[in-house]
Amino acid sequence: MTIIQANQSHLDQVAPLFDAYRVFYKQQSNLETAKQFLKQRLEKQDSIILIAYAEHEPVGFTQLFYSFSSVSMQPLFILNDLYVKKNYRKQGFGLALLNEAKTLCKNHNYKGLALQTETTNPAQKLYERLGWTLDKDLHYFWTNQ
C-alpha cells in the first residue's frame, strides 16, 4: 500500500475514484466534470488530495479543504471526501488515508480535522476508533436553490 499527495499528473487516476464517490452519494456519474473539478482544486491549491494505491492501482482517495476557526484563530482541514473501491474496503486503505490526513494536519500544526458524513455511513465506526468525536452541537445548512 502506498499513499501519495496528488498533483495534476494524477488526474486520470483520481477522477474515476471521485466520480464513483459521487455516485455512492446518489449523484449522476460525470467523469469529465469530476476531472475538471479536481483539476480546478489542484490548480487553485484549495485542497489536498491523497491517493491510496494497491500495488500500482489507485483504489481510494481523500480530499482535504483548507479552512479556519475564527474563535481559536487557527487553520484546520475539512475532510470532505473519503472513498475506497468496494473490493478494497476493510483492508486498511481507509485507515491509512485517514491517518495520513491526521499526519498532514500535525505537520501543518493545524487545529484539527472536521468531517461530515451521512448518518448511515458505516465508516463512522472507523472515524470514532481513530479519535474523531461526534459534535453534538446543532448545525445548520442553507441551500441556495
TrEMBL record:
Entries under PROSITE patterns matching the protein: GNAT
Residues that span the membrane, as ranges: none
GO molecular function: acyltransferase activity, transferring groups other than amino-acyl groups
InterPro entries (UniProt xref): Acyl_CoA_acyltransferase (IPR016181), GNAT_dom (IPR000182), YpeA/RimI_acetyltransf (IPR050680)
Keyword Isomerase: no
Domain N-acetyltransferase: 1-145
Keywords from the UniProt entry: Acyltransferase, Transferase
Name listed for the protein in its UniProt record: Acetyltransferase (GNAT) family protein
Organism: Olleya aquimaris
